[in-house]
Design a protein that fits this description.
The protein has 510 residues and is an all-alpha fold. The chain has 25 helices and no strands. Helix 20 (389-400) packs antiparallel against helix 21 and helix 22 (431-444) runs antiparallel to helix 23.
């Protein structure tokens, strides 16, 4: 048994989670003595990394009891915090709140330590949920001070990410992204443990996609997928005296079976979709559904929705409806895709109701600017389709106010396209915003939206009497749609070349 536990501890220190799980599981099944608190922590970690979420929670509960019995409030507090985090991901908020309360009880009045960083992080997250930005920022900065004092690179990087989240939610884009860059420098340089590497990849990708920062999203999804895919390499062992639940700095090396893969891949799916690589995007969306653990169902929901978006734009309406329904079952509001599908079916009233409900349900739009922009762009499209230009104007104005144009070219492109569509519907000059939109979409390398902007420019050219320019734009749009497999749009472009006067819809929903 002593040899087995020694081997298990060595495997855990090297982050050989499959090996550690096998050895610890065997030691737990045939004990000569109960596993100690640290071994139970390692069993919980290795079970999670091996995809055994329920076993991980059970082992963590036992680890908490063992820390309490051993008179170790720091270990008990950290384990309680991790239980709170896991129960929240499993969709059990009452249990999560109870364990967070227990963590505070264990650590209350204790001197500065890494575990206090975890409580500061919880304070920042709770303050954001309660829309108290001042308290959230104070808690995030308190976490940074504690992490720096404890000289813990994992927690320093996580604290930078936490502060970035608060600043981005306040609209302080430049400051927030600078902090996020700092946190991700440590991640991409391989300076952090695997747990925090994966966690920060997932969080940072959430943030840069929500902030509509396509450049960072492309760079970090590539890095994340490389980290998730490379076989496990040799690790630097943790330094002596590390606390039970706060890993000492180790050079991250991805494990063969990486539970972060699905959470990172979903952002790769979204990037591929924007860049027009639809076949790969849909293929990888299906992979996400196979890879995510039961505590990451939000990624599965996003994958189902992403597959539906490709299917809808390719004219595969029945498949798209199924994908949107699956996303809804998994907890995601399948908008604006479902509304645009209904609009294509001639059900504009249903589309409008769905979009308005989705917009009303966004409790804090600043946490997902891109999601908000997509909903508003779709609302512009639907309201213009039914002739409600006043409602469309309100949607466009909100779009234009989401973020300063130089700092967020993706949002600026969405807003310029919507503004041009509205101007076209009103018979006003539409060329300036539409040309700006086309330039931005091309610079961002988003081919579908660039082609949609060309369709609108063709309508503006035709309204101005420039038939030659209109045909050039329509020809370029048709070629792009055919290359993407966007059959309905390609047919519309062909019909317009043949002499139709206006495209049926005027919005843009990247």
């Amino acid at each position: 048994m002593a040899v087995t536990l020694t081997q298990a501890r060595d495997a855990a220190a090297r982050e050989d989670w499959a090996g550690a799980y096998a050895l610890l599981h065997e030691a737990d099944r045939h004990p000569t003595a109960p596993l100690g608190p640290g071994d139970l922590d390692a069993l919980a970690d290795s079970a999670w990394w091996s995809g055994r979420v329920e076993e991980s929670v059970t082992a963590r509960l036992r680890a908490h009891a063992a820390h309490v019995a051993a008179g170790d409030p720091r270990g008990a507090g950290a384990t309680a915090w991790w239980l709170a985090s896991e129960y929240r991901r499993l969709g059990r908020p009452a249990a999560a709140a109870g364990w967070l309360h227990r963590a505070r009880h264990h650590l209350e009045g204790r001197p500065d330590c890494p575990e206090q960083c975890l409580l500061a992080l919880a304070d920042a997250e709770e303050a954001q949920q309660h829309h108290d930005p001042a308290a959230a920022l104070a808690a995030a900065r308190r976490m940074t001070r504690l992490a720096e004092r404890c000289a813990d690179p994992d927690l320093v990087a996580l604290s930078r990410q936490s502060e970035a989240s608060v600043l981005l939610a306040q609209g302080r884009r430049a400051e927030g992204l600078a902090l996020l860059d700092d946190a991700m420098r440590a991640v991409t340089a391989g300076e952090l443990s695997s747990l925090y590497t994966g966690r920060l990849f997932a969080l940072a990708l959430d943030q840069c996609m929500g902030a509509a920062d396509l450049r960072r999203a492309v760079e970090w999804t590539d890095a994340a997928m490389a980290w998730c895919s490379v076989p496990r390499a040799q690790r630097v062992a943790p330094s002596p005296g590390a606390t039970p639940r706060t890993p000492a700095p180790t050079r991250a090396a991805p494990v063969a079976d990486n539970p972060f893969r699905g959470a990172c891949r979903i952002h790769h799916v979204e990037v591929l979709d924007l860049l027009g690589e639809w076949a790969r995007s849909e293929e990888e969306a299906h992979l996400v559904l196979q890879e995510v653990l039961e505590d990451s169902l939000d990624a599965a929901a996003a994958a189902s929705y992403a597959a539906g978006e490709v299917q809808r734009r390719q004219g595969r309406g029945v498949e798209a409806a199924r994908s949107y329904a699956r996303a809804h079952e998994l907890g995601r509001v399948p908008q604006p895709g479902l509304a645009l599908l209904r609009l294509a079916e001639g059900r504009a009233d249903t589309a409008l109701a769905g979009l308005r409900l989705a917009l009303d349900c966004q409790s804090d739009p600043r946490h997902d600017l891109l999601g908000r922009a997509r909903l508003l762009a779709a609302l512009t499209e639907v309201t213009l389709a039914v002739g409600a230009t006043g409602a469309a104007e309100q949607a466009v104005l909100e779009l234009e106010g989401l973020a300063p144009a130089p700092e967020a070219p993706l949002l600026a492109a969405v807003a310029a396209t919507a503004r041009g569509a509205l101007a076209l519907a009103r018979g006003e000059p539409a060329h300036p915003p539409l040309r700006r939109a086309l330039v931005l979409w091309r610079e961002l390398r988003v081919p579908y939206e660039a082609a949609r902007a060309r369709m609108l420019l063709a309508a503006a050219d035709r309204a101005a009497g420039d038939e030659a320019a209109a045909r050039l734009s329509l020809g370029a749009a048709r070629t792009a749609f055919e290359r993407l497999g966007a059959a309905p749009d390609a047919r519309r472009a062909a019909a317009l070349v043949a002499g139709a006067q206006h495209p049926p819809h005027h919005g843009s929903t990247p």
